[in-house]
UniProtKB/TrEMBL annotation:
GO molecular function, one term: malonyl-CoA decarboxylase activity
GO biological process: acetyl-CoA biosynthetic process; fatty acid biosynthetic process; malonyl-CoA catabolic process
Protein name in the entry: DCMC protein
Record domain Malonyl-CoA decarboxylase C-terminal: where: 1-58
Species annotation: Melanocharis versteri (Fan-tailed berrypecker)
């Protein structure tokens, strides 16, 4: 889960999220909200994402400002759960 959080939050291509689905939602003003262990246990889900599923949350009053923040300064808005996983990854990673 820590690696997944880092991949979605920290891995970038030209400053934007490397994952195309994450990039889509973040450009539209969402918050990287929750990572669900074994949220997709279908054969496709297991093969594509090791069963991980991600929730993006849209706070309607914040979508325009979140989108502008992401597009202008490439900053990802994320929940405390995701940020805690990112922090744990950074503390334990040798990457």
């Amino acid at each position: 889960m820590r690696l997944c959080a880092w991949y979605l939050y920290g891995e970038k291509h030209r400053g934007y999220a490397l994952n195309p689905v994450a990039n889509f939602h973040l450009q539209n003003g969402s918050v990287l909200w929750r990572i669900n262990w074994m949220g997709d246990t279908s054969p496709r889900g297991l093969g594509a994402s090791c069963g991980m599923m991600v929730n993006y949350r849209y706070f309607l009053e914040e979508t325009a400002s979140n989108s502008a923040l992401y597009l202008a300064s490439k900053q990802v808005r994320a929940s405390e759960q995701v940020l805690a996983l990112v922090s744990q990854f950074q503390q334990n990673s040798k990457l």
